[in-house]
Amino acid sequence: MSERRFDPFTGRSIVLAPGRRGLGAAKPGGLPEPAGRCPxxxxxxxxxxETLARWPEDGGWRVRVVRNKYPLASLxxxxxxxxxxxxxxxxxxxxxxxDHALALWRLYRDRVAALSARHPEVLFFRNRxxxxxxxxxxxxxxxxxxxxxxxxxxxxxxxxxxxxxxRGAPLHATELxxxxxxxxxxxxxxxxxxxxxxxPTRPYxxxxxxxxxxxxxxxxxxxxxxxLSRRVGDAIRRLKAVGVRDYNLVLRQVDAWWxxxxxxxxxxxxxxxxxxxxxxxxxxxxxxxxxxxxx
Length: 295
Description:
The chain is 28% helix and 24% strand. By secondary structure, the protein is an alpha+beta fold. Strands 3-4-5-7-6-11-12-10-9-8 form a 10-stranded antiparallel beta sheet, with helices on both faces. The chain has a 3-stranded mixed beta sheet with strand order 1-2-13.
C-alpha cells in the first residue's frame, strides 16, 4: 500500500511506495574520473584560485577554502567558494578524524559567516558521486552567495512563518517534538537531533537539526558542530553499509532554525516527479531508520 504524507517544510506531498522498492533499488553511481591531474591535491595549489582560509594555519594544509575557478555566482553581487575537505584524494567525510571533522565544520561555519556579512543569501552544499552532480573525485564542498531569495527558500520561510502565527511555536520546534517521539530517530544528542524525516524526499534521507533555535549556520555553536561533525560521518558510514554511496549534503536556513539534509542519490527523477513536483520514496523513513541503526 502506498501512503501520501505532507511535508510541512515545503508544502509538498511525498508518496511512500514500498511496493515499488524493487523498481527503485539503488543503482551504482560512483565518483567521476576526469582527465588530467587533480587540482585539489597538495602540490597543485597553482591550479586553483587564491586560498581564502585553511586548517591548520601552519605547515601542510588538511582543509583549504579557495575561490571557485568556474563560479556559479558570476553575476554581480555573487560569490562562489570551494572547500577542499581533505588533502588526501580518496577520502570521504566518514574517513576524517574527530579533530579534522570538527575543524572542517568550524572553517565552513566561519566562511558562511564571512559571506553572510556581505550577501543576503548564502548556500552550502556538497555533491558526492556522479549521481549527485560531482565533477571531481577529490572530496570537496561548495559555498555560494547570491543576492536574491530563491523560490524554494521563500516558500519554506512563508510556511514557517504561517505555522508560527497559527500555532504560536516555531515549525522546527513542533517537528522536533514529533520526531523525538517517533521510531525515526538515529541519535539524540544534547545539541543535535539526527533522524530520518517523516516526509523524506529520498530513500534513507537523514536530517541533522539543532535542538535549540539558531537561525543562521553562521551562529552555530561549537557544541552543535562537534555533534554535527560526528553524526554526519556516522550517517554516511551507515548509508554505505546499506549500499548508498552517492549523496548531496544541503544546508537549509529558514528563519529561526538551520538544519542540514543528507540526501542519498540512487537514481534520477522520473515522469511523476517532473509532472507533479512531488517525490516518490520507496523506503519508508521508519524502515530506513531501522536499517541505518542496525547497519
